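Pasting as-is:
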Amino acid sequence: MIVEYIQHLSLPVPRWVKAMGFGREVVSMQARHERCREAWAPHLEAARALITEAAESCVKTDHAVILGSGLLLDIPLGELAARFERIDLIDLVHTRHVRRQAKAFGNVNIIEADISGAARSVYSLSMTAEPDGDRPAPPIGMKATSHAYIAATVEDTLANPSALIDLPVPAPDPALLDGANLVVSANLVSQLPLLLMGWIEAHCPWAEDDAKDAFARSVVDHHLALLQNFATDNPESRVALIAEVLRLVHDAGTPVRKIDALFGAQILNEGHEWWWDIAPRPEIDNDVDVKLRILGIPDLARAPQSRICRNTTLAAP
């Protein structure tokens, strides 16, 4: 725990990113990989193979974009760097180890960006966080409270009463994909709403459950639309999607709980499928294991249509 705490402190990211838990999540993922390396190996190998398949099918090799590059565990960076003239690794958090890996190649760029298009807006919803700065504001009533911020908040609320009940509409930036011959969404789409939902739960008590569920679904829908729109508008490019569609809590193979990882959104395309044993016991619990059903599509635009929705069909009680 001490090592993870020090790693978190040393992450080169803005304070608001750390405040929302993105840094902690990356450090925890790195530690879990160390503990579950053997269990994760088949998934990571399958993910890297799918990305390689997508890369090999590209007509042009000028530019590749990796959305959700994370710790690079599932990214065949060396192979991509040898094939493409330019590679953009896009995520909110890049550890120092990842930055060193990228620096070893002359054509790999680190780009810090909110892929969901909603994280900073969600952070700004909190009445105890300064929207325009990285440092959380002191609680209202303390001497150091920003009176200007409180006055501005009251003024904005009077002008727009719905601001206290409306959650933001995700606005992912399509410019992140400009000029790409290969776009990879790497085990990302199901994760995009999770920390945002946690922040809303902790800091936005006025948000109703239906609104929170709709917001999570909207984050997923907007990411899938970003990929689909790019694939449609750029027929010579390839869009590869690796997505968790089902979260299964089980006891030695007997299902205990099935969770729709996409909040009801549907991916009605055929692709490769496999299980990721993400948390074998006792990683989360001494009595149950957790595994994820992964769908990998190497070419979203040309993938055959599926007759089932894996997440809603399999996750049904």
